[in-house]
Amino acid sequence: MPRSVWFALQTLFLSSDTDVMRVVGQGPPGTDFIEIVIEEGPLRQAMFRFSRNILLLSVMISAITATLVYLALLYLFVRPMNRLTTDMVTFRQDPENPTRIVVPSERKDEIGIAQRELSAMQHDLASMLQQKSHLAALGLAVSKINHDLRNMLASAQLFSDRLVSVPDPNVQRFAPSLMRSLERAIAFCQSTLSYGQVQEPPPVRRPVVLETLIEDVRETLGLAPESAVRWVAAVERGLRVDADPEQLFRVILNLARNALQALEGRAPNDPGRDQLRVTGQREGAVVVIEVSDTGPGVTERARAHLFEAFQGSTRPGGSGLGLAIAAELVRAHGGEIRLVDGTIGATFRIIIPDRAVDIGARRGERARA
Ligand SMILES: Nc1ncnc2c1ncn2[C@@H]1O[C@H](COP(=O)(O)OP(=O)(O)OP(=O)(O)O)[C@@H](O)[C@H]1O
Ligand SMILES: [Mg+2]
């Protein structure tokens, strides 16, 4: 076989038109052999024609195949990839526009997966951005309210300063608490305004006498001694918490206010309308504070989103921010807050750890001294 190919090529390229080819083969029955003598010139012409035709045919078949492969690639991969890229670019230009989110096809291959994943990612991103812009708008609104509230409180403070000169013993009894509350409210508005809108400033910690702080909470709640709700404070004598006093005050005030609201929601002659108890004790390097009441307890619905802003409220007129604020402030102290299970009414436990002591710094201080 290779010999025949070689001879054919020889005839085509190496022989001249004057060459003659002699073919000898077995003859039909009754003859010895058969011999054919032909000129190679016409044979070569015929072979050239044939080769040219084969070449043309191969080029045509290749061109058709290439076109078909190109079209298949274009429709199956290049176009969808182009569309995906264009979708990404248009989404990036305006990510808050929901009409720019990719609508994925039903394809099962990698491009289909890429489309679905991109669409899911765009949905997540769009809703996150929407939430963020709501929060930013809310932050701005809070700042404005805070600003004007601070001014109003400042004028209230001016009037309350005059109360000190009123000789009435009742006024003399309540005026200092009123002034302290106003001072606290003004300082709070001021710090929120100067720090920013959404986040709480980091705690400025120092040892705080818990008993005094809890007494301030009672005064701020306005619980009269003759109130139907009994206030019990059971704090270890002289207990100091390593905390930001203003922030810890807000935490306990929010919990105590919730407890009071739960108790006041009951009928005045209900025996369950009884006690609001705040306890505090040191356990090694942490201080445990509990605020408990003998009210109806926290409902299942409220438990589902208890410490989430705007989610946990089941109270008419409640904003669902109290516990979220308390949790944020406690976490800023590296502590934890949770609802204790299996108690009468509701008990919230706060754990505030002391700050870690930097032994190296202490040693340095002692050495300097
Ligand atoms: N001591 C409690 N007893 C019963 N339910 C409580 C108690 N504390 C909280 N809850 C429930 O948890 C919900 C969320 O409390 P949270 O303080 O976060 O919001 P709120 O009191 O409704 O509104 P606000 O933002 O004015 O505090 C309340 O609506 C209430 O249903
Ligand atoms: Mg509340």
Can you walk me through this structure?
The chain has 369 residues and is of the alpha+beta class. 56% of the residues lie in helices and 15% in strands. The protein has 9 helices and 9 strands. The protein has helices at 2-13, 40-93, 110-163, 169-195, 210-221, 245-264, 300-304, 322-332, 359-368, and strands at residues 20-26, 33-39, 206-209, 230-235, 240-243, 275-283, 286-293, 336-339, 346-353. The protein has a 5-stranded mixed β-sheet, with helices on one face. The protein has a two-stranded antiparallel ribbon with strand order 1-2. Strand 8 and strand 9 form a beta hairpin. The radius of gyration is 45 Å and the shape is rod-shaped. The model has no long low-confidence stretch (mean pLDDT 87). Bound molecules: adenosine-5'-triphosphate and magnesium ion (MG). Adenosine-5'-triphosphate (ATP) binds at residues 254, 258-259, 262, 293, 295, 297-299, 302, 306, 312-315, 318-324, 346.
Uncertain parts: none
Oligomeric state of shown chains: single chain
Radius of gyration: 45 Å
In DSSP terms (H or I, runs of 4 or more residues), the helix count works out at 9
- Please, what is the average pLDDT? 87
The percent range for helix content is 55-70%
Helix and strand topology:
Blueprint: H1 2-13, E1 20-26, E2 33-39, H2 40-93, H3 110-163, H4 169-195, E3 206-209, H5 210-221, E4 230-235, E5 240-243, H6 245-264, E6 275-283, E7 286-293, H7 300-304, H8 322-332, E8 336-339, E9 346-353, H9 359-368
Parallel strand pairs: 4-6
Antiparallel strand pairs: 1-2, 3-5, 6-7, 7-9, 8-9
Helix pairs in contact: 2-3, 3-4, 5-6, 6-8
This protein binds adenosine-5'-triphosphate and magnesium ion.
